[in-house]
Specification:
The longest helix has 23 residues. The strands form 2 sheets. Strands 1, 2, 5 and 6 form a 4-stranded antiparallel sheet that branches. By secondary structure, the chain is α+β, with helices and mostly antiparallel strands. β7 and β8 form a beta hairpin. The C terminus is likely disordered. It has 6 helices and 8 strands.
Amino acid sequence: MKKILTWAVIVLFIIGIFLLGRCTGGGSTVNEKAVNNVLLIREIAELASMEVQGNASFKQSNVSNSGEWSDNLKRVFAENTAWVSVPYTAKYGVDTDSTNFNLFVTGKTVTIQLPPPKLLSFELKMNKMETSSRKGWFTFSDDETYTEVQKKLYDTNRSQLEENVMYQKQSMDKIIAILRSYYTPLGYELKVEFTNNTSRFQTPDLN
């Protein structure tokens, strides 16, 4: 609800800019204020987050399925295999502040510098978790096993999502598209650079 209200305020703000410019005849001045509104542009960039849904799973077992007699013996008497699968929702986007956000206007070109998109949140839907297990004759149920597997599932899948270059690129594209939809009606060309402490990624021209 908060996100919807914020977008509504942004849309009304943009409409107000054009109406004010038309009524006062000061369209050029109003446009300059809209172009240089750092706080608003930062808010738009942060709101342009991308949501990803998927299924996280993890399997832990003390048998290797090697086919050796010792492994087969362990499977019969001492196997302890646990499998957990949980749907998840992940959100990618930028987290900006005054130190990692810059806006420059040169003629009719706006250059915006943002930090690279990253994984902002990773939520497991535990109410939809599925589990299964296989145990040997001498292995008893142990809740601690599932607790350990769940922790490894969270850590492993979160790490994979943090390093997912494809999702990061999709998040960049979405941020650029939304910022461009703001500047194009104002008559400005947009360039976006995603920068960090060691490197800079300049987006290609999407025209």
